[in-house]
Amino acid sequence: MFHTKLDDFPENFLWGAASAAYQIEGGWKEDGKGSSIWDTFSKIPGKTYKGTNGNVAVDHYHRYKEDVKLMADMGLRAYRFSVAWSRILPNGSGEINDKGLQFYENLIDELRKYNIEPVLTLYHWDIPQALQDAYQGWESRQAIDDFNEYARVLFKRFKNKVKYWVTFNEQNVFTALGYRWEAHPPNIANVKKMFEANHIINLANAKAIQSFRELVPNGRIGPSFGYGPIYPFDSNPNHVLAALNGEEFQNHWWMDVYIHGKYPKVIWKQLERLGVTPTIESGDMELLQSVKPDFLGVNYYHGGTVRANKIEFPLKDEEQQLDKDFEATDPYLMEPKEEQAQSPEVPMFTNVSNPYLEKTDWGWEIDPIGMRIALRRLQSRYDLPMMITENGLGAFDELTENREIEDQYRIDYLREHLVEIQKAITDGVDVIGYCAWSFTDLLSWLNGYRKRYGFVYIDRDDENEKSLERIPKKSYYWYKNIIKTNGKSL
Ligand code: BGP
Fold first, then answer.
1. Which residues of the chain have pLDDT under 50?
2. Would 344 be classed as within a structural domain?
3. Which of 11, 27, 254, 459 sits between 20 and 30 A of 378, alpha carbons compared?
4. Residue 369 lies in a domain
5. What ipTM does the predicted assembly reach?
6. How many Cβ atoms are within 10 Å of 20's Cβ, its own excluded?
């Protein structure tokens, strides 16, 4: 703290909540929807927790009016959701499915009826299976044109109804988990393919923003990046250098392209040494440099702590446990595993647990101050307005005998993060909104229905759809009051 009195949240601050199509909608084959890569991947035995999938999810497809009414009663000012590409273009390109468009139009109209600002995400990880089958999805440059075609359909239809648009959700996460760790579709472990696909997605992002400028001149568009600040394990300059490497590799590698249209040099050279740089064709860099987002979407859950690589700088005894804790718990491990790195080089950094931080039931570090650090770093490097497009706590929630949820732990988590956002605003950071993850409970990609994030409990579990009843949790009423007082009651 270097100031004692905090600024108020801006008057028009977008107090919101977020979701993604595959995680809430269900209706996976309804009204002409095609399959997405998640519809297929989740059916591969052993890939998701207890084989859970989004066939029914929390049935938002049929219950969106009830869900929006709950948002309205809460006073929500913004709702971030994603569109399932395979509802709009069941084959990925070509024939448009009007019923799919109509569903989103109905949802948007319902939101606007209650003055809830829609924040529309174009891509939250679910490319149509037809495009994966036809040309390996994001491995082919054809996906740039097909994504653009899909985006243009939505821009044209909703340009007068939606102001805020998100292009790609957590490109860093879905490329790493999908192409490197075989943990998401398309279920590949190949670093070279990861960087190739990633470059193609960068081009798709830029091309869609070009179309946006043409078709939605008054709208705002940006990517949502899964950002976590990287800390050095301690002040040993070797560890500080490792943290710099980590920040460049895990964050700037993506964000510098979004904002400046170029790849950071240090990482580019390292990838060259490893033989995994993406193929750059003529015109690529010009396309990347021709656009700039209007805002940065920031998904913040936690950062990471790193030390110099273990090969040149062996762990001290007291560091062994931190190392083990990390390996055991973090699902977003990005450091090359020896067998998968395909690298003769020593790693640029090694991830370790942070001894100062508590963890969630799923081993994610809880680091509210990291939110302020994230916002500060992003403001000073990129200088764009920011919207927190995700932040929240995944926990086991238990229904009491009175059918209530006493999720004080979630309230504490959200409150602490919001206080740090308020401090960042006081520091001088431009934050335009906050979308908690998530509005209702929903399907966690790999962790089933028992990892709950919502303000609203859904009566279902991993084995059974049960009643799908919506039950507002204690945190629902807490957030309602925060919104009503524009954050003054934090
Ligand atoms: C983000 C995703 C969300 C959501 C969240 C929580 O990475 O954008 O879709 O799932 O993480 O993750 P999990 O469901 O793994 O707990």
1. 328-345
2. no
3. 11
4. yes
5. 0.99
6. 27
